[in-house]
Design goal:
Layout: H1 3-32, E1 35-37, H2 39-43, E2 53-59, E3 65-67, E4 70-76, E5 81-87, E6 99-106, E7 112-119, H3 128-147
Parallel strand pairs: 1-2, 5-7
Antiparallel strand pairs: 2-4, 2-6, 3-4, 4-5, 6-7
């Protein structure tokens, strides 16, 4: 084999290895990508059925029910509320009327099966996506009330 052909084969081999590495990295990134949806987005069927995502808003007053380590509650953005079921120990700051972000999957029955629950950690903090979703829902409610 001529030196020129060897160099060409090495370049082609290097490009192929690089291509495989990039494909593996992008595949891993895609599998670990988790999007945020508000309860209004979930009610409008914008959230995926088979993939994990995050839902955020406020824990609806009077909706928390505990049965051992199984907890059910509703997450609301003041316009829509989504039932959530979580098996595990909730954060200490988890309370009704406070902000929460849950990660999991939406079941075929419309109940969000949470694998992780995060509570807001102080009076001023709310995840930007959850705050924006709450603002949008409140604006929509105000415009409906004004039109009536």
């Amino acid at each position: 084999m001529k030196p020129r052909h060897k160099r060409f084969a090495l370049i082609i081999g290097g490009v192929a290895v690089l291509g495989v590495a990039v494909a593996l990295i992008l595949s891993a990134f895609q599998q670990n990508l988790v999007f945020f949806f508000s309860p209004s987005d979930v009610a409008a069927h914008k959230a995926p059925q088979a993939r994990a995502f995050r839902i955020g808003g406020l824990v609806e007053e009077g909706s928390v029910k505990r049965e051992g380590v199984m907890v059910s509650f509703r997450v609301t953005d003041t316009a829509h509320a989504i039932p959530v079921v979580y098996k595990g120990i909730l954060p200490d700051l988890f309370k009704e009327g406070k902000g929460v972000v849950a990660q999991g999957k939406l079941g075929p029955d419309g109940v969000f099966q949470a694998s992780e629950v995060l509570a807001k950690h102080d009076e001023n903090y709310m995840p930007p996506e959850a705050g924006h979703a709450l603002e949008q829902a409140q604006k929509a409610q105000r415009s409906v009330q004004v039109n009536q």
